[in-house]
Amino acid sequence: MSDAQVSPPALTRSARWVGSARQGLMVCGALLLLAFLASLAIGPVTIAPRRVLEILLGALGGTQPSGISLRESVIVLDIRLPRTLLGMLVGGGIAVAGALMQGIFRNPLADPALIGISNGAAFGAVIWIVLGAHLAPLMPQLLTEAGLPLMAFLGALAATLGLYAIATHQGRTSIPTMLFAGIAIGALAAAGTGFMVFLASDQQLRDFTFWSFGSLGGATWHKVASMLPFMALLALVAARLGRALDALALGEAEAFHVGVNVQWTKALAIAAIAAGTGAAVAVAGVIGFVGLVVPHLIRLAMGPGHRMLLPAAGLLGGALLLGADVVARTIASPAELPLGVVTAALGAPFFIGLLLKRRAALFG
User: Fold this and answer.
1) Would the CA dihedral through 198, 204, 206, 212 be positive or negative?
2) Which residues of 149-172 are buried (b: 16+ CB within 10 A; e: fewer)?
3) pLDDT tens-digit profile of 138-179?
4) For the whole model, what pTM was predicted?
């Protein structure tokens, strides 16, 4: 029986709940639209939202609107639009990956960084930063230009494959083993990163430090295009696994008895988490807490059902990261704060509050 046939009575939703969840989904979509316009309008040069819309509509029609200067068009279409789209993809991808991870771990404190994917990506990136000048002559020109994101993605992929190899035995994947393996792999990658930092020059150390804090400042159309296949895979898996994750929340045995292929569900979710998180870290650096905070906010507002939680997390994650990016590039203008600093400043107090709230349960 496939997970599409799952219909346990415990998962039946009332019409009222579904209506409320759909309203929540619409609110998340509206927030993303507002953040999209704010990201295009706000910056060192502020452009009115109405003029931003005219520029976008003019571009769709292939014309230059009257009264709009070429400078404003270049700022919106060539500078801010790729950055905004990249922020939507990165934020949405990290949030959906976080929701998937919390679903398969059945633990609301789980986060993609927990299983070492981010550390693996950081290790790949620092290898390129320190040794890139020596590796570049051995590689084709196209790969040389994409060296940093490529190495970050390969680092994330290697961490994920190692994790899966350790945690899987005779076709079965142990979630507790995966958790411990992720911590060990993350520590190993951090040790490798520390060694490469030890070898780095002052300029290389500065480059890695800035990258590791996260930023959308290097956004290009090429990076946006490179993210699309990974985000499409993540979205397809999320759409496929909503019901299965709802059943898995009752326990693996219960999910199996209602027809869920538990091993296939976990393997598919892990692959999607690795693809989404690895691609996001590769193009934007390490950005923490979005994958942890956003699913919690959605659960508080809409409940734990994954069919609505996953798409809502994608919308709200994109909106949150765009909002954080606006803050990062305006609060200390003309300088730009690292994006990871802003998300950590927002997410860390939330995480501490969550731990305090759950302290009684954690200590039995």
Assistant:
1) negative
2) bbbbbbbbbbbbebbbebbbeeee
3) 766 666 666 777 787 788 788 878 877 887 777 666 767 877
4) 0.82
